[in-house]
């Protein structure tokens, strides 16, 4: 059984995303400035399954990448020396080397991993992986930027 480093209430305080686009349910491991391990429980109730695909529900790859980016954003915020405030968000800036190894289906527990490759001047580069049952289902290099919003 995993311990909880951040529960859904703490995640909601940090990320601006809300249903149906909030894709991180819990953070189970985090090492400041290094790595994060979070999870997303995938259920048939997800709105995207109505159209992707009605006869064989599969989580869209772009949402798996978004889930990895949200986990990475949580790591970025946790790694800061001081709280950036509620007016700071992390935007997706780029993706390289995205690969999808197998479909993610209802009932799967998606484990999201991100490690910081580089952080400089509010721009972060991560290596991300998504796993189900210990097998890699997707991986990518993610680039995000932290910005104040008006």
Automatic annotation (TrEMBL):
Catalyses: a (3R)-hydroxyacyl-[ACP] = a (2E)-enoyl-[ACP] + H2O
Query: Could you give a single Gene Ontology term from the biological process aspect?
Result: fatty acid biosynthetic process
Source superkingdom: Bacteria
Q: Which residues form the active site?
A: 52
Classify the main location: cytoplasm
**Per its UniProt record, what SUPFAM superfamilies does this chain match?**
Thioesterase/thiol ester dehydrase-isomerase (SSF54637)
Instruction: Give the molecular function GO annotations.
Output: (3R)-hydroxyacyl-[acyl-carrier-protein] dehydratase activity
| Cytoplasm among keywords | yes
Which keywords does the record carry?
Answer: Cytoplasm, Lipid A biosynthesis, Lipid biosynthesis, Lipid metabolism, Lyase
**PANTHER family xrefs:** 3-HYDROXYACYL-[ACYL-CARRIER-PROTEIN] DEHYDRATASE (PTHR30272)
What does this chain do? Involved in unsaturated fatty acids biosynthesis. Catalyzes the dehydration of short chain beta-hydroxyacyl-ACPs and long chain saturated and unsaturated beta-hydroxyacyl-ACPs.
Q: What is this protein called?
A: 3-hydroxyacyl-[acyl-carrier-protein] dehydratase FabZ
**What is the species of this protein?**
Vitreoscilla filiformis
Name of the coding gene:
fabZ
């Amino acid at each position: 059984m995993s311990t909880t480093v951040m529960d859904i209430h703490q995640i909601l305080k940090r990320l601006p995303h809300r249903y149906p686009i909030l894709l991180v349910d819990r953070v189970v491991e985090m090492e400041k400035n290094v790595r994060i391990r979070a999870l997303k429980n995938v259920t048939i109730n997800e709105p995207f399954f109505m159209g992707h695909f009605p006869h064989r529900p599969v989580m869209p790859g772009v949402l798996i990448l978004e889930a990895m980016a949200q986990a990475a954003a949580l790591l970025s915020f946790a790694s800061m020396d001081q709280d950036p405030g509620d007016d700071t968000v992390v935007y997706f800036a780029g993706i390289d080397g995205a690969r999808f190894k197998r479909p993610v289906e209802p009932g799967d527990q998606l484990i999201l991993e991100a490690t910081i490759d580089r952080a400089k001047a509010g721009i972060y580069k991560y290596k991300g992986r998504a796993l189900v049952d210990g097998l890699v289902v997707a991986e990518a290099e993610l680039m995000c930027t932290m910005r104040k919003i008006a």
